[in-house]
Amino acid sequence: MYVKISIISLFALLLVGGVSTQSMVFGDPAFNVPDKYSPESECSLPDEAITFSLDKDVYQLGDEIKISGQVIPAQSTNLADQSKHNVYVTFPYAKSIFITPSDDRTANAQSSSTYDSDNASSMEQTTSLSILDTTLRIDECGNFETSVKVIPLVFKNGFYVLNIKYQHAEVQTNVFVLDEEIQKGCFKANSFLSESGRCGDYKGDDSDVELSAAPMPEIILTSDKDEYLPGEKVKISGQIKNAIFNDTVELAIESSTASDNNQLNTESVALRGTEPIFTWKYEIPSGASGIGTYSIIANTHLDSVTKTFTVNDESIVTEFAAQKTTESPTLPVKKIIEKHNRITVSQVQISLDEKVSDEQTLLPRVIQGSLFTAARGDESSVNIQITTSAGDCVIGQDSGCAVNDSTRKPGSIYDQVQIDGKNYNVRYSGTDVRLEKFTIIPAESNTQIDMKNWSVSILKDDQPTKFYYKVSYVLLE
User: Fold this and answer.
1) 81 and 162: one domain?
2) CA-CA to 215 of 20 to 30 Å: which in 35, 280, 352, 391?
3) pTM
4) Are residues 325 and 470 in the same domain?
């Protein structure tokens, strides 16, 4: 006769009988992993909750996507919790599907079809990517690996999101599928792609269908004009061509003339659909601070493209611009700004005198100038040199010049330079910029510029340039 005694019953009998037993722990020994920093641990665990790698950067139809990785195993004594054993690999959606000759220009949709590994041509084009979902069991050290077949008609040319989840941690990456022969067109059999090959074997049989080549996806980026005035709005438009797109476009406006961070504005635009379009508007700063060269940048997982435009200060005319106080038009003028624009010659003479307005004498206080280099890439070979009537070089690239480089330093934007025995604060943007700027002002407040004649040389070959300068005359008290 056989007697069945459960583990619990046996344990009770031993206690009743007075037999001492060692302590017992019930759990899954494979997942009672010592702390990864403990010397007792035999596992070398990663720093991140999930790490993984793929075997290739680009896959073709019929390839296998080989995925290998490691997680930090969860510590749990709950035997009913199976999530600690499993890693979930999914392809939730396609970020972009390239439009090919045989494409019906529709994204993958839900379908009840299942994949027949022996007959790939039976797969409907509407089959969902969910058939690729995989559950993997990790080993005692958290390692896992799997491979996913790049199934024709489930996968098309494009970028797909690969998602790996373990417990509450989740990571993603892009998987790129590009079968160049599909993109080239060539031919296909009426049932499916010919067994003899997609390209090079077309014989004109009744079962063969010629396909014309399809262009690769392209990001189109345009603005309504190439040249603007300060204060105008730039109308930006774009399109993702030759692709069914489901992702975000990151837009940015940058200026090479901005004093600090050259990124002026950003925008994130979510797009979805066949060859979707997007629009954006940007308002250029008003006044002289708005002139210069700007770049519009569109970043996507497909590519990054840039469009440039320029802002010329046409709104500033060559005349005396009287700036009167706003309290009353009858008050005397306290400041006059004389502006000169779009000078294309290489030698410019600046002569300072005094201005008389309403029986008030205004004296020169500040000289400011800007050199715009139209030819991109020539910034470093086109520069300003400023000398006094005595021949002293104040700004320039020669070693004898007082200022050679940008004067912007932590806590200061000026260099102090002595000119004819008087201290001046000189501000300079430095070379290798499309808009080279300078400012010269006496270091002592409420004093005028004593040096009456200045010479500005534009050092260049035959590059097109435009020089702007203005002199501020003020009523000194």
Assistant:
1) yes
2) 280
3) 0.55
4) yes
